[in-house]
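Onboarding guide, step 5: your first structure request.
Type a short instruction followed by the sequence, for example:

Predict the 3D structure of this protein.
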Amino acid sequence: MNIERGLFFDGGFIRPLGIEDVYDGYIVGLNDSVVNRYLEVRHEYQSEQSVARFVENNQKSADAVLFGIWLKDQDHHCGTVRLHEISLTEKSAYIGICIFDKKSWGQGLGTKSISTVTKWALDGLGLLKIEAGAYADNIASQKAFLNAGYEWTHDIQGKYIFESKPVTVKIFAARSQSNL
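The system replies with structure tokens like these:
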């Protein structure tokens, strides 16, 4: 599976991000308090340099892939999916998603992108398990993972601080059919 040319889903595609994909809309989206409400990135202002550094670090990483999400006929990506802590030894990874262009919300892009990356990772990389976490209040993210075939596995109480209070993180997992 050649991911450099993109992985396609109904209405769009994903491909690994490069430095050339950093644009104002990406940066503005990451700094939008509605967009970044449930992201750890909310704690720091994002600049062109910090976003470019993040993209570059993921390009160089041996255990992460940062994908951009494009709707067909779009010049710029409207979100990202990151597969990280990829362990070919343990055959596992973690996944996270951000749709930073609010005009793209409500179109099922989260589910489609998560499904596409998950299929690539399970089939193409031979992973057996991919995990994701979502704050208990982040219903949209939970629905996207469930609709992408993930199952809720457990909760972690108080792992993160959200709005000055410890919160519950719901953990979801996708497993390879060969792991059933």
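Each response can be followed by summary notes, for example: The longest helix spans residues 109-124.
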